[in-house]
Each structure stands twice: as structure tokens, then as C-alpha cells.
Design brief:
The protein is an alpha/beta fold and 262 residues long. The protein folds into 2 domains: 6-135 and 168-261, Rossmann fold (3-Layer(aba) Sandwich), CATH 3.40.50.150; 137-167. The protein has helices at 6-11, 16-28, 47-52, 65-74, 110-120, 141-148, 152-166, 174-183, 197-208, 211-220, 233-243; strands at residues 38-41, 57-62, 77-82, 95-101, 121-132, 186-194, 254-261. The radius of gyration is 18 Å and the shape is globular. The chain starts with 5 loop residues before the first helix and ends with a strand. The relative contact order is 0.16.
Length: 262
Amino acid sequence: MSERDYLWLNLRDLPYFRGLLRAVEAGFYQEFDLPRPVLDVGCGDGHFASIAFEAPLDVGVDPWAGPIRQAAYLGGYHTLVQADGSRMPFPDRYFSSAISNSVLEHIPHLDSVICETSRVLKSGAYFYFCVPNHRFNANLSGARLLESIGLHRLAGHYRRFYDRIARHKHLDSPEVWKVRLESAGIEVVNSWDYFSPHALHLLEWGHLFGLPSLLIRQLTGHWNLVRSEWNFALTRRLVQRYYDEETPHPSGVCTFYITRKA
């Protein structure tokens, strides 16, 4: 088990709400052996891999040039490839393991990406990933407040608005994921729910009121100007209990999957 402080390492670099969720997820991967070569499907800017793994992963794939350049700077991968996840330039059965952290929910052509991931994995290779699940939108505090005063149509608009700003395309149950994965030749070995509805509310309002952080990011290239621990003492006190909450969580709004290529 790593002794790294994932909460601090994420809070110093990211908006607090995103840092909290990524810190929780980083801890999960410390339990797993990732045989090489390792593939990261949707590596983005590489921040997660640079924090969650002590050694660089073998290959990160992402369709966007900007994040790929940032990932190269952070050094979390030996090789970075700009490619769509449904058309990866690798031979069949090339990778011994794969991850995808909070990415698959954003992909419109998800089934094609899952099939392509299966193609490039060796038989028996593990694929670890996490996504928000079917409880996510149902537990948004803004929508629930509107429903409590009878504004059901407005609550629906609120959920659709949140999907747009969070870029959600899929918020599916484990049952839906099981069918999707099995159709691509991947079996679910284990899964668990995490991140409580109360933690979601912290994430939700951070998204809605995160404009100052976005402005700082656009002007400076960093989410936070002062990356000293004293500057995050109050923030850490606010989020620590959600970082420490029980996993699995019985009403968790996200799900972590351990799957294996058949």
C-alpha cells in the first residue's frame, strides 16, 4: 500500500471538488498489480496517472492534442498516442492490462471504444475503470430541491443542464455495464459503489460555482495560485470526511469495476 497523500496531491493541483473525487479513486488502484504493457484509455492531461502511479504507465491514448501535450509535460507515460479510442493503432492482444479513470461516461460511441479496448487486450488481461452510475443524477441536490417544491419539469431541466456541463453521455447501472462488457468479450470480476450523495453535493456545487478557478486556469495555466498546505487547511477540513467515508458505500453514485478479457 502506498503511503502517498492522495488527497493533498490532488487538492494542490485541482479544484477541490475534482481533487476529492480523484483522490478517492487513486487509492483504489494501489490494491492492483498492473502487468506491463499497461494502457490508459482516455488519459487526458495525464494528471491522474502522474499522481496515482509511482512509475509511468506504458501508453496513454487520448483524441485531443492539448491534453496530450500536458500529459507529456507531467511524465506519467512512456508513450502518448493521439487517437480515438475506437481506432487505436495497436496490434490485437498487445496489452497485459488497462485502466480508464472517469472517462467512459463522456464517450458517445462507447460500445465501439469498449470493443476496441477488448481487441488490444490479451486474453485474461484485467481492465480497471470507474464511472458515475445510475444514482448520480437522481441525487443531485438542485434537482431534488426543485422536486420537493413540485417543480418536476424544472428539475428535469436542471439534470440535463448538469449533464451538459459535466459532459455526461452515460450514467448506467452495473446491470447495463455487465451486458455492454460481455458483448465485447469482457467479464465483470468485481465492482463496488463509492462517493456518497453528500459527497456528490460537494462536487455538484463546486462545478456550478467554479468560475473563479476556471478563470485562474485560463490566465495562469494552474487551477490554484498558492499550492502550500496552509492555503488548503480549511478546504481539507471540509472534504476530509468524504475522502475517509466507507467504501463500498451502499448509496454511492459512482462505481469501480474490475473486469477481465475472456
